[in-house]
Amino acid sequence: MKNRTKCAGLALALTLTGLGGAPADAATSQDFGPVVVTGVPKAPTPPAKATQKVVPLATIETQVAAGATAYVYSELRAYDADQANLIDNEIRCTGAGASNVVLGENVLPATHPDPALRDIKIINRFLVTATTSGALSCTLSLRTASTSAFEARETVSGTLRFASTSVGGDAAGTAIQRSLPPGNLPVTSATVAPVVTAGLPAGYRELAVIADVEFHRGPEPSPDSPIHYSTARFTLTATTSGGPDCASAPVAQTEETVVRGVNHAAIPLYTKVPVSPGCTQLSAKVTTTYVAGNPGSVGGAAAGLTDETGVSGSTPNHTSAMTHLFVVPS
Fold it and tell me: Can you tell me the distance from the alpha carbon of 68 to that of 148, in angstroms, rounded to the nearest whole number?
């Protein structure tokens, strides 16, 4: 099972097990699965659009005050697929605050020789700020479709939790977070995005700097091309400044090869930087560098996602952020 980086987050305050939907009493944490998902829609005959099956798996809820920022953390594991299937981990938060974030990749069949491609884990984590006081509710859903001409199945399990409900912000009190807008960024050499700069209030001792990057395999230049992969290096850096002895974070770096069939991958990155007294500025960024194969791209927000099972663009639909970077101070 893929485990590309050390995961950020606090210990579970409460664990519940179920097959999806909200637990009987509102919980700040929920485990789910294993759930066998059947009836995964087959790939359509062009030019028809693919149908994505949307399966709610977990819901968490907490009371927040207006202006409070929560840290949402999740993991979605997928395995025992009988086809190459899309596995999207989407979280939608509503109520006192609103945010939609989706990350995903394809899981390959249980017969595939590479165990890392037939048993995958997609981490999805982000900040959401309350605009009013009241209940903040977040639901994790699986978005899935087969890339083959056959209806398919897979097994999923995972967790969803509020890692914190009181994340500090910048000097103005605003959550330190940046998500890419719709549109993919080509990676032909090096692409720097997202980038976060922020003024820091006094009192922070350390900053956890976290990024999730959606990387897409690039297309072949011709139908007879023998190259069916994209390899890129992903680097997260963070520095503090504005005072004496300001520190930089250890560089978080990983390299990923996305092959045909997998097509895209969610890349989690994580580092920490201490904040020395008098250091008032933060700068953090993700650099994606071309390494080999067909040049890929960094995925921006996904538009036209259906609220329930359906095809892209059908109503009702919404937009979900994909590649993003955020900071959790302590």
Answer: 44
Least Cα distance to 142 among 84, 78, 83, 99 occurs for 78
Largest CA distance in the chain: 62
- Per-residue pLDDT, 46: 87
Nearest to 109, CA basis, from 267, 263, 262: 262
Question: DSSP label at 174?
Answer: -
CA distance 82 to 155: 10
Buried (b) or exposed (e) across 239-260, using 16+ Cβ within 10 A?
ebeeeeebbebeebeeebebbe
Question: Phi/psi of residue 118, each to 5°?
Answer: -105, -5
H-assigned helices in the chain: 115-118
Q: For residues 322 and 213, what is the distance between their CA atoms, to the nearest angstrom?
A: 7
Q: Nearest 10 degrees: CA dihedral of 114, 117, 121, 125?
A: 130
Q: Give DSSP secondary structure letters for 6-33.
A: PPP-PPPS-----SSS--SS--SEEEEE
Residues in the chain: 330
For the chain, how big is the Rg over CA atoms in Å? 20
Taking the chain (330 residues) in runs of 10, the rounded mean pLDDT of each run is 40 28 64 97 92 98 97 98 98 98 97 95 98 98 97 98 97 98 97 98 97 97 94 98 96 97 97 97 98 98 96 94 98
Contact 314, 152 (CB under 8 A): no
The answer to whether residues 70 and 167 touch, using CB atoms and an 8 Å cutoff, is yes
Q: Whole-angstrom Cα distance, residue 190 to residue 83?
A: 34
Distances (CA, A) of 279 to 92, 201, 249: 35, 9, 14
How far is the C-alpha of 281 from the C-alpha of 266, rounded, in Å?
29
Strand pairing report for 324-329 and 177-179: antiparallel
Q: Which amino acid is located at 150 in the chain?
A: F
